[in-house]
Amino acid sequence: MPTAPKLVAALWFALLAWFAAEVSKAHFPEGTQFGWYTYMTGAIGFLVGWIFVGKRAGDTMAAAYAYGFTAIIILVFWALFYFSFEEMLHRAWDTRYRGPMHALVGMVDLFKDYAILVLRFDVVVTLLIGGFFGGWLTEQAARRWS
Fold first, then answer.
1. pTM for the whole thing?
2. Rounded Cα gap, residues 67 and 13, in angstroms
């Protein structure tokens, strides 16, 4: 059921994910083709805000900061999972893997490589500050409009 805190959380975490994706682009190798990277990360942020954060609104401020922090962990995990899975599929269609298990191991390696590229100081600080603020903002929306 749509509520104001879900909408506020979804919009904030979509914006946060979009901004963090833009900040992280500086750490990728030169010439990287990003395609829908920023938009897909924003969509994942929207879903995390709507499904995870907005549902938990209406508790204490300490809980708000906790679910804001947890939301950024979930956001980073699903974004890394999505992009490593997508790259694994592209490599599998190019027949770079010997079989499904080799492809899954390759996906784990891609996940690790992407995590090393993305989880840099500026991106982590952006996500931490934005996550805590997103928890606070969602809690304020729940107190005002629920």
1. 0.93
2. 12
Q: What is the mean pLDDT of the chain?
A: 95
Angstrom distance (rounded) from CA 67 to CA 73: 10
Please report, for residues 54, 56, 86, 128, the alpha-carbon distance to residue 6 in angstroms, rounded to integers and kept in the order given: 4, 9, 28, 20
DSSP, collapsed to helix, strand or coil, labels residue 3 as coil
- Helix axis angle, 4-24 to 37-47, nearest 10°: 150
Give per-residue pLDDT as tens, 91-145.
999 999 999 999 999 999 999 999 999 999 999 999 999 999 999 999 999 999 8
- Taking the C-alpha atoms of residue 29 and residue 125, their distance in angstroms, rounded to an integer, is 21
